[in-house]
Structures are given as C-alpha cells and as structure tokens.
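[job 0412] stage=complex_fold ligand=protoporphyrin IX containing FE status=START
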Amino acid sequence: MSQFYVISAVATFILVLCNIHELKAQLELVHYGNTCAMAEQIVKDEVRNAFNRDPGLAAGLVRLQFHDCFIRGCDGSVLIDSTSSNTAEKDSPNAPGLQGFEVIDKAKARIEAVCRGVVSCADIVAFAVRDSIEMTGGLGYDVQAGRRDGRVSLASEASSGLTSPGDNLTKLTQAFAKRGLTQEDMVTLSGAHTIGRSHCTSFTYRLYNYNNTGVQDPSLDRAYAAHLQQECPQKIPTLAKLVVPMNPSSPAVTDAGYYMDVWKNRGMFNSDQTLTSSPRTANQVEQYAMNPMLWKSKFAAAMVKMGRIGVLTGSDGEIRANCRVIN
Ligand code: HEM
Ligand SMILES: *[C@@H]1O[C@H](CO)[C@@H](O)[C@H](O)[C@H]1NC(C)=O
Ligand SMILES: *[C@@H]1O[C@H](CO)[C@@H](O)[C@H](O)[C@H]1NC(C)=O
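[job 0412] stage=complex_fold status=DONE, emitting structure tokens
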C-alpha cells in the first residue's frame, strides 16, 4: 500500500516537472503585456506606414515568416545579414527577392526606444505578418509570442532546406511534415501565393524548354503561358530583374483567388500546380476555390501553427538588439 503511494507521488512529481517544462517552452498570448504593452501597436503602425508607401511589402513580410520558420524554426534567423565570415540565409540563391526587412528594422528601432531588450525580432515578424494579412483583406488572428532570437543563419541551410518552385507533391508534403505540418496545412499555406510577385527566373524553366523537353510545361494553361511569355521574354539581359504578379486577377488581396488559378491550371510554379496532382489535394483546392471564407479561416489557423515551428523560448537564444546582427 505505502509502496503504491510512493510510486504515485513520484509519478505525480514527474508529471508536474514535465508540465512546468512544457509551460516554459510555450508561446502565449499577450506575452509582452507587462513588459512592452505597446509593441504590437508599434508594429502595426509601421506595417501600415510601409503598406501605404508600397502595398507589395505586405506579401514580402508574409514570405519572410515562411522562410524564417522553415530554417531553424521561427527564430528571426532570416533577418540576419551576411558578414565577412558568414553568408546568411537571406543571401542563399534559393531565396531570391526577399523583401520587407526595413519594415522590421523600423518597428524594432521604435520598440527598442521604449522597452529595450525585451521584444524579439522573431515576434516582430510574427506580428507584422498578421497585420499584413489583415491589411490585404485576410482574416486577423491573435499572435502567440515569446519567441527568442537565434544566433545562427547559414545560406547553406536555406539552400538545402527550403522548398523549391520545381518541387512535386511528394517533396512538398515531406518538407512540411518535417516541420510538423500536415499535407492539408501545406495546401492551405500555399494560398499565401494569392498575393505578391515572383521573379521571372523562378518559373521561366516552365515556359520555353521545360526541363529540356523542347516544349513548355504541358500542365500549364496555354493562354496563361502565353501571357507569362510576354511578361518574361526569353534571353533578354534584364530577365533576372523582371517580376510578375502572382494571382493576376487580385495580386494585392488575400483572397482565395490562388485556388481558382491552380484549379484552372494557372499555378505559377510546379509547386503550386502540383496541388491538383492527387485527388485529395485537388479536392481541397476546389473546396477553397468555391468557399473563400473557409480558406481564410483555415489560413489564419495554419499561420498560427507555422509560427510555432521550432521556436526558442525561456532562456534559449537571445533578444537581438538589431535584427540584422547577433548580439
Ligand atoms: C510550398 C512551397 C513554397 C514554394 C516552393 C514557394 C516558392 C516561392 C517562390 C519561388 C516565390 C517567388 C520568389 C521570387 O522569385 O521573387 C515565392 C513568393 C512568395 N511566397 Fe512562396 N513558396 C512556398 C510556400 C509559401 C508559404 C507557405 C508562404 C507563406 C505562408 C509563402 C509566401 C510567399 C509570398 C507572400 C510570396 C510573394 C513575395 C513578394 O511578393 O515579395 N510561400 N514563393
Ligand atoms: C524540372 O526542373 C525543375 C527546375 O530545375 C526541377 O526543380 C524539377 O524537379 C524538374 N521537374 C521534373 C519533372 O523533372
Ligand atoms: C518527386 O520528386 C522527387 C525528387 O525530385 C522524385 O524522386 C520523385 O520521383 C517525384 N515523385 C513524383 C510522383 O513525380
């Protein structure tokens, strides 16, 4: 009998310990309530300023969080600048055209001026992305905070760890699964391509001589391909600089237009079009195309989930003073 009590007391103790550990490791709402209550408002203000100057920055910010979270978790590592001894994630050839860094810098500078050393760069990204989605017509959501900033950013990890526009369904599903995201999450998050732009160079391989087949990608709608060919003429010296809007019918609005594109074989990348290559994912694409509100609410929830990938909490990592340099 008494043995039973000892065992159960020990078991309870272990459970409590685990719980404490788990609590410590979790993000929470209003994390800065007592330490920097105005942080979220400052971020929103800076995102609005940026958005009024250049609405395209909203898409840039949303993409930043994807890149941040997929490499070393959501730890602000995508913000770090290269140095003479290190090439950082943002300078990987696999991450062309990242933008929005100045928006984060401005918000960080204002936040540091009122509460120094408290708010992480990774959390600022998460707040700014929520605001960007809201400002472009998506659904807002509460951002859990408490992320700490990482101290490592390697271009090589972005080159090998990020998804590529040429990826097929199997590869994408695996890449998301590695981060604890389901195939359904992957289809839902890909809808971020309803805003923003792409460099021609990210998809011209589909237009002219698809993987050396001599013809264009047969899975691409002919009229859309002709349009893209006009926007991205082959072999002109400035090709590397040209950009084209994604979801051409409403490239600045977070709506379900992306799924209509994909449904009509107008996905910009293989990684978009491949979502119709299995019955299950094709069905999800159709559901979202037909029911935009369903996608908007699932997207908000999936962004919260993506924002939790591999976060540093408690005393791990640091609170960077300047989002571009480790302390
Ligand atoms: C599924 C795998 C994905 C692949 C292969 C992929 C690939 C790409 C590529 C190649 C571009 C264009 C870059 C350029 O040439 O300028 C792009 C842009 C973009 N991506 Fe993705 N992406 C993926 C998933 C995501 C996710 C999950 C999000 C966010 C939740 C996202 C958000 C964006 C946004 C908003 C843009 C436009 C950026 C801008 O206008 O500055 N992407 N993506
Ligand atoms: C086509 O080429 C792209 C870009 O080089 C690559 O990512 C993709 O896997 C290739 N697709 C096929 C079906 O070979
Ligand atoms: C997907 O791509 C991978 C790697 O590029 C390849 O090994 C695999 O055969 C492809 N799967 C399908 C179904 O095409």
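The pocket of 2-acetamido-2-deoxy-beta-D-glucopyranose (ligand 3) is lined by residues 168, 170-171 (CB under 6 Å).
[job 0412] exit 0
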